[in-house]
Design a protein that fits this description.
- The complex is a heterotrimer of chains A (305), B (409) and C (302).
- Chain A is mostly helical and 305 residues long.
- Chain A has two domains: 50 residues; 233 residues, MetI-like (MetI-like fold).
- In chain A, 66% of the residues lie in helices and 0% in strands.
- Chain A is built from 14 helices and no strands.
- The longest helix of chain A has 32 residues.
- With 409 residues, chain B is of the alpha/beta class.
- Helix content of chain B is 54%, strand content 13%.
- Chain B has 21 helices and 15 strands.
- In chain B, the strands form five sheets. Chain B has a five-stranded mixed sheet, sandwiched between helices. Chain B has a four-stranded mixed sheet with strand order 9-10-8-11.
- In chain B, β1, α2 and β2 form a beta-alpha-beta unit.
- Chain B starts with a helix and ends with a helix.
- With 302 residues, chain C is mainly α.
- Helices cover 69% and strands 0% of the residues of chain C.
- Chain C has 14 helices and no strands.
- The chains are: A mainly alpha (305), B alpha/beta (409), C mainly alpha (302).
- Chains in contact: A-B, A-C, B-C.
- At the A-C interface, α1, α2, α4, α5 and α6 of A face α1, α4, α5, α6 and α7 of C.
């Protein structure tokens, strides 16, 4: 086990730079392979083949931008994008608001804090499949929430989001928020705990109210935490897939379709790989659009460890 | 005493004999509803009786869920021994890539060209003169299923065709019954669309669009009428809050809904529920207007395998699946029609007899699986999903549909 | 991003415990928290009570009512009898598969990532940061762009459809975040320790095994929690890179719930759902604050 390699970096002269530190290089081979072959190679391959007319099998039959033209001409893709935009913006705002409010509540030096925290966070341990199925059941019109409220005497009560094309996204949202807000709350809480007690004292001396202190003083101070949370939420939203498959299957009709599902279905079900690759390349572009401003804010200008 | 001993000995002899040649074949399919599972058990039992082992690889959900898994496994170099696929265009590229077993010798030995009826089924399995699949059954999509209980409760006669159904739908609705049960999934909505167009637009227009891919016919007046009929059907099904097809069928079985447009596999659900055709429910092929059926259906394909023992077993299974006994027991359980016209289906119930009659009289059409690529079909299903669940106008849907037909392959 | 992950200490409440309990603000505060708690607890409660009811009782309505007659039959059925096609062995097979996928995946991904992190932190070589950056960007790439190339890669090495293929996929996709975790941890180890070991003539592996691993035990625990929950809950890779015989539990759950024979048995579905969620839930409740660190570190993984 103890292969004494004696790499002796920097100080000793070696015949070739390639062999300097060679054990570390060998040990890093899995990482190098993953980075180059799977991540870089796989992505490049997909992008390349998105310019082909590949159907069931990948074929280097070049068709230029045809796949992209068709993609943006397809209602289902547009619907998917819109759905994701609605889901994404609601999810982002509500997760941040809810996550921060809950964290602020917990930060008020309350009793049973850890019990509350445990309750808010446990859904995050569950998979999206489990989340989707649980909420599918609660939102079931014949047995779930709707029928219970009706049995209480409110006969005309209607809450059936999963079977209504106009509101199905909010059915997904209820489940998505349930699963994901706990995490953001934890991050916010850590951020709040990192704020100096003196800030609060100063605010009190100046006679600023609690809520106002949060809005005017604390939130601006927590900008980095908010940005981190935002990137986490955003990168999760783009990958939204399991929840939809388990909770609605994309239905009713196309009303809860999302881009990730479009990619997989056109790749495998419609046997049109080129179309699926084009759609996944568009997803990649949207991630890049989100990541670049973040990387700029996070690392731009100053170099951090 | 002696007979017991004898049977015991025979039993042992049988197991030893078969143990020597027993081959495990993994078979993938998406038959998971009650009637379907009962049918596939018939195949499994028949195969296990030969001393081999049927390893069931059921994949839940519709073919749309299962096909990707099946295909990616074949492409991924980890093929199952046999798999269900709808025959037609789906497997074409796999055959071209040399991934599927050539069954021509089995077919010649079994005289498939003589027994398979209609012969178009075997044509769909054939590429460059070689046969690559075993047709298993014939499925037709153009059926409407009517609940007698629902109509009796409303004090109405059970309709005998689509027009009567539409005419009485208002009364049925007034009696508190949902006229049309509809699973809100693209493929089901696409089936309903196909059945209604065939009934309303007529045979010629249907053929022009589905076989000749004539976009002008899809823009024509017959199809305008058809799209308006579909839009009307949409409003009849607007309260239908189910997703799965068999849950929609269940609404008809329990009388919560008046009718459902669904393929002949719905029959299996009625059978499992113990209902009798003509008493508890009615079935109308071609929606009672055009007595023609498409002849889609399931077929089994056998991915190429390096192991000669498995290859031999695959061919054995192929021959078994089309054998008269297996055909009868499977299709009776599933409610589909057999692929051979030379077997006794007198045990079949009324609905199947209607289908057999149409088949015998040659009223058959090619199915969408044969006419269109999976890509085009998915696009049509997407359009139908959109049309049925939104307030998209019939004219817009028709225009989009015609565009798809124009680009169809 | 990693430096914003909350440490366990930071989550401790500070200062004195509250004194005035009955102020208006406090009533409002606790009221809100209790209301929100209900939203979070409701699904778990509903799943549990539904899974303990018989179908006739479910059809009578009120999903919020406690079971009038407790039955464990749905649990038995979900575990060992529910059908997909003609396979009626319930979720038990999926559970076995998930365990067989989980153990090698967790071990392999953590071993590889810890060595990576160690090499990156202590044995930097030319280009190591470049590879690391690619790896981290890879964590953000939608998996969809890599799904198909991986089918081809797995086919080429003959692992498509097998449990080992999926293990490899989990190792690859777990690598960015775990490597980051270990790299940051090892980088915080005092450099004097490392230098002293080098002077004593210890090599790459000696330092790794004798100095680094013993010091990094807490981070190993975090990594294990992160991987166990993540891999157990995976659906996408499970559905694409395995076959029915090797389906993990999540995929099988989705199959059982969505393969309806006759009527939907909601009680069995809920029991199956709970069974699938049990492993990560136990980990969550048993690990407490370490879990928070784990998921906070892993949240970027998506």
């Amino acid at each position: 086990m103890t292969v004494v390699s004696d790499p002796r970096p920097r100080s000793a002269k070696r015949p070739s730079r390639l062999f300097k530190n060679w054990m570390a290089k060998i040990a890093s081979l899995p990482m190098i392979l993953t980075a180059l072959v799977v991540f870089l190679g796989g992505t490049a391959w997909t992008v390349t083949y998105s310019f082909t007319g590949s159907r069931m099998l990948p074929r280097a039959k070049w068709v230029g931008l045809d796949q992209y033209e068709r993609l943006w001409d397809t209602d289902r893709w547009i619907i998917s994008i819109k759905n994701l935009a609605i889901y994404g913006s609601c999810s982002m705002i509500l997760t941040l608001v809810l996550g921060f409010s809950l964290a602020a509540c917990l930060d008020r030096k309350i009793r049973f804090e850890s019990a509350f925290r445990t309750i808010f966070l446990y859904p995050f341990a569950l998979s999206f499949v489990v989340t989707g199925l649980a909420w599918q059941w609660i939102l079931n019109p014949d047995f779930g929430l709707q029928s219970v409220v009706r049995s209480w005497g409110w006969e005309s009560f209607a809450f059936n989001p999963l079977n209504d094309p106009n509101t199905v996204i909010f059915g997904l949202l209820i489940a998505g928020l349930w699963q994901g807000t706990g995490l953001i709350m934890c991050i916010m809480l850590a951020g709040l705990r990192g704020i100096d007690e003196d800030i609060w004292k100063a605010a009190r001396v100046d006679g600023i109210g609690t809520v106002k202190t949060y809005v005017v003083v604390i939130i601006p101070m927590m900008r980095p935490v908010f940005i981190t949370a935002l990137v986490m939420i955003a990168s999760g939203i783009i990958k939204l897939y399991d929840l939809v498959v388990a909770q609605t299957g994309g239905g009713p009709g196309l009303a809860s379709e999302v881009p990730a599902k479009y990619v997989i279905e056109y790749m495998f079900r419609a046997q049109n790989l080129g179309q699926g690759f084009a759609a996944s390349t568009m997803m990649l572009c949207s991630v890049v659009i989100i990541l670049i401003p973040w990387a700029y804010l996070e690392f731009g200008g100053r170099k951090r460890g | 005493m002696s007979t017991t001993l004898k049977s015991l000995l025979v039993g042992t002899a049988l197991t030893t004999a078969s143990a020597a040649s027993a081959v495990e074949l993994e078979v993938t399919h998406w038959w998971t509803s009650g009637g379907e599972a009962a049918a596939v058990s018939e195949f499994a039992a028949a195969w296990n009786a030969t001393g081999n082992t049927w390893v069931d690889g059921a994949i839940a959900g519709s073919g749309g869920t299962a096909r990707p898994i099946i295909i990616s496994r074949i492409l991924g170099g980890d093929p199952m021994a046999a798999t269900q696929l709808n025959h037609g265009r789906q497997a074409q590229e796999l055959i071209e890539a040399g991934l599927l077993l050539d069954l021509t010798d089995v077919a010649e030995a079994g005289g498939w060209t003589d027994i398979v009826n209609p012969s178009s089924l075997l044509d769909a399995c054939t590429l460059d003169g070689k046969i690559y699949c075993v047709p298993i059954n014939i499925h037709s999509a153009q059926w409407i299923w009517l609940s007698h209980a629902a109509y009796e409760n409303a004090g109405l006669e059970v309709p005998s065709d689509w027009n009567e159904f539409v005419a009485t739908a208002g009364d049925l609705n007034a009696a508190g019954t949902l006229p049309l049960a509809m699973g809100q999934q693209g493929w089901q909505q696409s089936i309903a669309f196909g059945a209604i167009t065939l009934a309303v637009a007529g045979l010629d227009a249907w053929k022009a669009v589905n076989v000749d891919k004539d976009a002008d016919a899809a823009r024509g007046p017959e199809y305008t009428a058809a799209f308006e009929a579909v839009a009307a059907a949409r409003s009849l099904a607007s309260e239908s809050a189910v997703q799965d097809w068999n849950l929609a069928t269940n609404m008809v079985i329990t009388g919560q809904a008046g009718a459902q447009i669904m393929g002949d596999w719905a029959q299996g659900e009625f059978a499992v529920a113990g209902q009798v055709e003509g008493e508890d429910y009615s079935c109308l092929p071609g929606l009672g207007l055009n007595a023609v059926l498409d002849t889609g259906g399931d077929a089994f394909y056998f991915p190429v395998n390096d192991d000669p023992e498995i290859t031999a077993a695959q061919k054995e299974l192929a021959a078994l699946l089309i054998s008269p006994e297996a055909q009868v027991s499977f299709n009776l359980a599933k409610g589909s029609l057999p692929v051979r016209g030379d077997i006794d289906m007198s045990a079949a119930n009324g609905c199947m007899q209607k289908g057999l009659e149409i088949l015998a009289s040659g009223g058959v059409l090619p199915s969408a699986d044969i006419s269109f690529s999976a890509d085009t079909q998915t696009q049509i299903e997407d359009l139908m999903a959109q049309f049925w669940t939104s307030d998209m106008s019939a004219a817009d849907a028709q225009a989009d549909y015609a565009d798809l037909i124009e680009k169809a392959d | 991003m990693a430096d914003s992950s909350p440490s366990a200490a930071a989550l401790e409440p500070r200062g004195r415990k509250p004194k005035k309990t009955f102020s208006r603000a406090n009533i409002f505060l606790y009221g809100t928290l209790i209301m929100v708690s209900m939203y979070y607890l409701l699904p778990l409660y509903v799943m549990v009570v539904t899974s303990l009811k018989g179908m006739p009782e479910i059809r009578m309505g009120n999903i919020f009512g406690p079971p009038m007659e407790i039955t464990f039959e749905p649990w038995v059925k979900a575990w060992s009898e529910a059908c997909t096609g003609i396979n009626c062995d319930g979720l038990s097979r999926g559970f076995g598969n998930s365990v067989r996928i989980l153990i090698p995946s967790v071990l392999m991904s953590i071993v590889i990532a810890s060595v990576n992190g160690y090499a990156l932190a202590n044995w930097k070589f030319k280009g190591s940061e470049v590879f690391f950056t690619i790896l981290i960007i890879g964590a953000f790439i939608p998996y969809q762009t890599m799904l198909y190339p991986i089918v081809i890669m797995l086919r080429e090495i003959g692992l498509m459809g097998s449990i080992w293929g999926l293990v490899l996929v989990h190792t690859v996709f777990g690598m960015p975040i775990l490597t980051l975790l270990f790299r940051n941890y090892f980088a915080s180890v005092p450099e004097e320790l490392f230098k002293a070991a080098r002077v004593d003539g210890a090599g790459f592996w000696q330092i790794y095994f004798q100095i680094m691993i013993p010091m990094a035990l807490p981070i190993f625990v975090v990594a294990i929690i992160l991987q166990v929950t993540g891999i157990w809950n995976d659906f996408l890779f499970g559905v694409i890179y395995t076959k029915p015989a090797t389906y993990p539990m999540t995929v099988q759950l989705n199959n059982i719930v969505n393969s309806v024979q006759g009527i939907k048995e909601y009680n069995v579905n809920m029991a199956a759902t709970l069974l699938t969620g049990l492993v990560p839930l136990i980990i969550y409740f048993a690990s407490g604050k370490l879990f928070v660190r784990g998921i906070a570190a892993g949240a970027v993984k998506g």
